[in-house]
Amino acid sequence: MCGRTSCHLPRDVLARACAYRDRQGRERLPEWKDPDKYCPSYNTSPQSNSPVLLSRLHFEKGADPSERIIAPMRWGLVPSWFKEDDPSKLQFNTTNCRSDTIMEKRSFKVPLGKGRRCVVLADGFYEWRRRQGTSQKQPYFIYFPQAKTEESGSTDVAESSEHWRKVWDNWRLLTMAGIFDCWEPPEGGDLLYSYTIITVDSCKSLNDIHPRMPAILDGEEEVSKWLDFGEVSTQEALKLIHPTENITFHAVSSVVNDSGNNTPECVTPISLLVKKGGPQGGFWPDLEGSHRCGCRSADLPPWCEAAPMTTFLGFSFGLADSGVCMVNSDKAS
Questions:
Q1: Residues 252-275: tens digit of each pLDDT
Q2: CB burial readout 237-276, b (16+ within 10 A) else e
Q3: pLDDT band at 167, cuts 50/70/90?
Q4: Which positions are annotated as active-site residues?
Q5: Which alpha helices (DSSP H) does 140-188 contain, by range?
Q6: Among candidates 139, 180, 80, 145, which has minimal Cα distance to 266?
Q7: Model pTM?
Q8: I need a surface site. Which of 32, 132, 226, 250 has the fewest CB within 10 A?
Q9: Which whole-number Å values give the CA distances from 54 to 40, 150, 179, in the listed order?
Q10: Given phi > 0 = left and psi -120 to 50 = alpha, else beta, which region is 189?
């Protein structure tokens, strides 16, 4: 499933991260619709607004379908046929839409049949894994592997704000397949655009964290096909819906558990350590409990590329040469 995301980039940076080429081969940036409704956040939860990418043709008849719009939409699809006057009265959860039942449920089948396909934009998403032997869950931040930039080789926590601006300027956004719909209040009023994120079985590297993951569109070709509802049929578009192994992740602090917390601490890596027995009673990396995603340092964002030992939030951790990212909870247990 997917129930929490991060999308904190400013509007102009987010638009630059969505650069594309139209049918004439011209490089373009998507235009914003209702930009004031976008509120950047490190900790976005359902029923709040998030940015989605979609074809301009949904808003303007006769428009070039290859041209794109970024629009903030409510997370949690409200079907166009919903008759109540308050979306919160919807009796079922539409945050996510399972790929295996997408054509069985009216709430999703109808807008999908109308071509209402969108791409949900995020820095990444969060998922929780139950800690062995406890009732506690460890949160992880999950995202595309990031390409190194010229600045990233000597990243330190105490870098200048200018450095971090460049880091996020080059961030590869996670692009998730979604369906949207447009609801009009029965008594009249502003139209409400809302969306759901399609989910699939988790890939092998995420399966130990959660059995489901978002359907991720990996690359411009997949994004373009998903958005082009005029040329690409529903049946063809659904072939894009499958797990991807092109993903990496790290553990983060439990501060993200509270959706009211909206700070960089939500995405900052922490060290996963467990207290081992024995006369010394020291702390050691729990390699069985930490993720072995196979990611190399080149896949990781600059905050994970620091020299052998780096301190985040009062904890020290290092990256093993093998590429295992030893990242951990805010409290050793």
A1: 999 999 999 999 999 999 887 654
A2: bbebbebbeebbbbbbbbbbbeeeebeebbbbbbbbbbee
A3: low
A4: 2, 127
A5: 161-169
A6: 139
A7: 0.80
A8: 132
A9: 19, 32, 10
A10: left
